[in-house]
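Justification of resources, computational component.

The compute hours requested in this renewal are based largely on the per-chain cost of generating structure records like the one below. Each record pairs the submitted sequence with a full structure-token output. That output is archived, and it is also reused by downstream analysis tasks.
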Amino acid sequence: MKTILHRADSRGYVNHGWLESYHSFSFAGYYNSDRMNFGALRVFNDDIVEAKEGFGTHPHKNMEIISIPLLGALSHKDSMGNKKAITAGEVQVMSAGSGLTHSEFNDNELEKVNFFQLWIVPSEQNITPKYEQKYFKETERNNKLQILVSSENSKDDKSLKIQQDAQISRITLHKNEALEYKLKSNNHGVYIMNIEGDIKIDNNILGKRDAIGIWETRSINIIAQRTSDILFVEVPMIF
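The structure output for this chain reads:
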């Protein structure tokens, strides 16, 4: 088993006034040669957008982009004709493929929006762009994995689909409960973000927003030292 530990306070950080962002991997003005990616996972940003602020229209190409709101709602508009709000509890997937543009805005007069933005390198280039979003019930991940995103070839009919042999899942693991996480193959690794709470993985204790990447193993044992909200991003390490 190989591991890489990313403490919350070791992430890249930027404050633009309207946006605070914590970068697990090199992004925009933050560059760290030791943090370019984790396998096919290229970006993991923890973004906080102020009230009545947002991202103007900008392009993407050949990237699987996943947004997971944790607090508040973002208004989304794109060149495919989608115009929707994405709220906490929902997950949004955009397969940028051959190219698209989009914008995201916090319409709330008072409250901030906090969301994760993940970019995963696709297995195929220049596909037709695609958009999906879905609400996932919190009660359906109590002490069990809830699959949010999976491969186009996956048989899971409840998850959103992306163009990569990857899986994103989430669990609310209650105090003293344990989970054995099983990876898809020897070529896969998993990047585990502890959203809230305290968990133990081997000899590592992870607090709020601590993360660990694990590969070259087929299973991982996790124990919640207090009730914890955990996100798993499993991706090919060679792609």
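The chain has a mean pLDDT of 97. DSSP finds no helices and 20 strands in the chain.
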